[in-house]
Amino acid sequence: MATLEELRKHLDDIDRQLIELIADRQHTSGEIARVKRSIGHPTRDYGREREVILGARALAESRGVPANTAEDLMRMLIRSSLATQERSSVTARGHGSGNRALLIGGAGKLGGWFVDFLASQGFQVEVSDPAGAPAGTRDVDDYRQDSLQQDFIIVATPLGQTDAVLRELAMRRPGGVIFDVGSLKSPLRGGLMALKSHGCRVTSVHPMFGPDTELLAGRHVIFVDLGHEEALAKARELFAPTMVEQVVMSLDEHDRLIAYVLGLSHALNISFFTALAESGEAAPRLAKLSSTTFDAQLDVASRVAEESPQLYYEIQALNDYGAESLEALSKAVETLRRTVLSRDAGAFTALMERGREYLEDRKTMTGRRV
Questions:
Q1: ∠123-181-316 over CA atoms, to 5°?
Q2: Cβ pair 211, 113 in contact under 8 A
Q3: Nearest CA to 179 among 163, 160, 155?
Q4: Whole-number Å distance between alpha carbons of 295 and 37
Q5: 3 state SS of 79
Q6: 265 shares a domain with 215
Q7: pLDDT for 191-243, tens place per residue?
Q8: Regarding beta strands 152-155 and 100-104, do their DSSP bridges make them parallel or antiparallel, or are they unpaired?
Q9: Using CB atoms within 10 A as the burial measure, which of 42, 131, 193, 355 is most buried?
């Protein structure tokens, strides 16, 4: 009979082999990306992914391994492979070769993401930020003193500062494509319209993902059409090598939808952790309890609580359509409260069924994402 130490050593050997196999799989994914590009094959093949997952489930069951465990592992590996292939595709396309891009606010989190993204496409990246420029980029001490001859000028400053930057750029009339990456457009309307009226090549972009995102498959980037077809096309072209889902809409439509996508979801989670925090003696006791729904909601609320209060305040307060989603939340809570207090089981069931129908439609739309 093997000793505990021998069994642990054997487990270490297995772990080492697993890492080596994952590295081999990553390398092979890079080669697959190269072959796909050479034959014009899209990066993502949903049919192939389904075959891999079903095969893994069948093999797992034959070996006494839970099928769900095998599927979770394969989905994780598929995402990793897709990220590798996507990066290879972006680098190979090289849209930015020989071109320059200025990131105003490039030392921030999202600005940093764009620095890496543009550098991978071959752009000469320049950064103007009080915090300094990241390694490998040209430091533009003050964009207001720069000649602004870049092919792209991307404004990634805090939302409260962006409109002033856009207005300053409008007065300079730079020749490159200009866009911001703000999560709201209402506060930027004046600056964006100033750029447009001064004949600048302007559009507006909203990446619907965080700066830690590696794989863009299943993610969205919203492009706000401000009437300059070339600027819109150039901005969209930056994301062409990726698997991101591109959505084009007007400025007003953007903020009306974001009032729900961001404003409502943020408000819901802020209300959730505020209710818990103000629950008095229940708070420490709740920390010792657990349920699937409570834990899942707590995880989301915890991530929201760690975000920037200033940014989240701006998303709530500066959106011209923000009151609409808050009113919808208030109305929904009041409907639920009234239904429960009146002991109206039929109305409660109707609420659940209506939600189930809505979410089933949503699930169908997103079911293809890994």
A1: 165
A2: yes
A3: 155
A4: 43
A5: helix
A6: no
A7: 999 999 999 999 999 999 988 888 888 889 999 999 999 999 999 999 988 88
A8: parallel
A9: 193
